[in-house]
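User: Quick sanity check before I run a bigger batch. Here is a single chain. Can you write out its predicted 3D structure?
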Amino acid sequence: MAGGRNSAIATSGSGPGRRARGPIESEGERRRSRLRVLLAEDDDDMRRHLASALRAEGFEVRPVRSGVELLKSFGALLLRGRLATSVDLVISDLRMPGITGLKVLDWLRRANWRVPFILITSFGDESVHAEARRLGATSLDKPFDVRELIAQARSVAARGQ
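Assistant: Done. Predicted structure follows.
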């Protein structure tokens, strides 16, 4: 199964006519096996759409509205000592009020936090993409097919980039 979930299948009855009922996993296993995404997007409709699509694909999503909220989320996780175990991937818009996604990425890298990062933007000139690559992130230009974002999210998180 995708996402590294437990693949044991429960069956009912016995013999060759048994039918599969679905995966056997506890709620804790389900939570641990899901990729945890921190999603920063200032456009309400886009944030809801992306969060919904990611959740439908099995991601655990914590949406935030700005770069400031994104930094506050990291600060809260750090204070609780849960940074390394709470976020598998950041997906952030580039242009947001207050602090840009690129600035957040830069601050995270300067603090030696290597959480995988995808920068999404409507303003993706080559210099933005080059800076994102220099900081170890992937970038994706809007508009994009949400399936492309999901594929990149899985790939980037698997590589730990």
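The beta strands are 9-12, 19-23, 36-40, 60-64, 89-93, 117-121, 138-141.

User: Great, the batch can go ahead then.
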